[in-house]
Amino acid sequence: MTVTTEVAPAPRRSSRRGASFRDAGPPVALIVIFGVFAALSPQFRSFGNVQNIVDSAAVLAVVTCGITFVLMMGSIDLSAAGVMGASALTVSLLVANNRNGNDFGFFGILAAVLLGCAFGCLSGLALVLLKVPSFMATLGVSAVGLGVATLMFAGVQPNISDAALKGWAVERFLGFSYLTWIAVACILLGWLIQRYTRLGRYAYAIGGAEEVLTLSGVQVRPYKVAVFALAGAFYGLGGVMVTSQLGAGLVQAGNGYDFSAITAAVVGGTLLTGGRGGVLHSAVGVLLVMVLTNGLVQVGVSPYWQGGVEGVIVVAAVAAAVIPQRRRNQVVK
């Protein structure tokens, strides 16, 4: 009797290799771009300029942490500008300021972050209960936030005098401002949520295959609301950080951060269609965008070109990311 044995085929590694190459792309691009600008401008490679790049990236990094979770689900969040404006006015009127006698300190900061969380929760509820697409739901919430901020502004700019909050942007630890260390803590927190909590894993799963997750018995809607609430909390903290930088609460505190955060996340490798990327990817994207922006200024390119450059980067990054999917599905949505 002859016994035959079958050898199992070796597992395919092409997809893993492709994923590893995609993950390595943004860090390699960051190193290359930094090296190019360092060679072109001695001022760019100075330690003082590196400090400036990292400190300038702090607020954007926090906002990008929030928007990354939404993008991982395959949704879009355009509420950052309105939420940051409302949170900025809230904190400026609750800490020591020139408009009233309030001096709630840390509790004023906490209230601003919780307000951002509430706005995010509102976006999530509009999505899951009213079936409003995330694009329109968050755009509407942003308008509500800007309206609330305008009402609180009341034509008189509130200037803060709270020493602790103002110190976030002024005082330094190991050469970097407190804002930078707050951003580092937010990135670490975001990564821990993404890596070790059910919320983070389900955000990935919703973006990758929501139908499969639903068929497995998971109630998807509460997790969607929770993701938007988490993102709103990050936006609220971003508004507080901008207030620390400016020393005042402004309705326009979050202007431009929504598009810049989406740019950074996409450049870092987080797909707009969901299911790929993460907080660390987006953090690399933030540094890449900030290095590019700073480098263009250092080599003499007009700042007016920066918005156009960001737009080109987003289109190129999205196109490069969807090429494999387009080849596989032969469909363009």
From TrEMBL:
CDD domains: TM_PBP1_transp_AraH_like. The keyword Transmembrane helix applies. It is a multi-pass membrane protein. Keywords: Cell membrane, Membrane, Transmembrane, Transmembrane helix. It holds the Pfam family BPD_transp_2. The keyword Ubl conjugation does not apply. Residues 1-21 are annotated as: Disordered. Its main location: membrane. Residues 8-21 have a biased composition (Low complexity). This is ABC transporter permease. It is found in: Cell membrane. The chain crosses the membrane at residues 21-41, 53-71, 78-98, 104-130, 137-156, 176-193, 225-248, 254-272, 279-297, 303-323. InterPro entries: ABC_transp_permease.
